Amino acid sequence: MRYKILNVIYNSLLLCGIALTVLTFTACKKDKLDMKVDNRALTENRTLSQARIINFGEYNQVIAEADSLTNFITRNSSDPDHYKYPGTSYFPTDGRLGKMWTLPQDLFDKNSQVSLSIGTRNYQGVGDRDLKLVAVDDYTKPTDYFLLPSNFVAGMNDVVAVPRGVSLPSKPDHFKIRVVNLGVKISEVIFAPNGVSEDISGPVSLAYADGTLVNSKTNNISSQAIASDYIELPYGTYQFKLLLADGRQIPSLGSESHNYTLIDPASSTIPISYDKVSHLHYAPIMTYQPGGVYTIVVSPRRFGYFMDEVDNTADVFQNSFQIITDVTPEANRTYFRAQAVNAYQTQAVNFSIAGNSMGNNVSFGNASSYINLVQGEYTIEAKDATGKVLATTKQFLRAAQNYTFWLHPTEQGNPNILAVANDLSGVLPRGSGDDATFSRYENNFYFFKRFLNLSVGNPYVTFTLGNGQGAGQSFDNVEAAQNLQPGVPKIDRPYLLMGEYRNPFEILAYRSTPNMIPGVWADDIPVLSSEVFIANKNLYDHVNRPRPVQEAGVYTVALIGKSASSAGQNDKAKMIIVKHNK
Question: Hey, how many other C-beta atoms are within 10 angstroms of the C-beta on 123?
Answer without folding.
Answer: 14
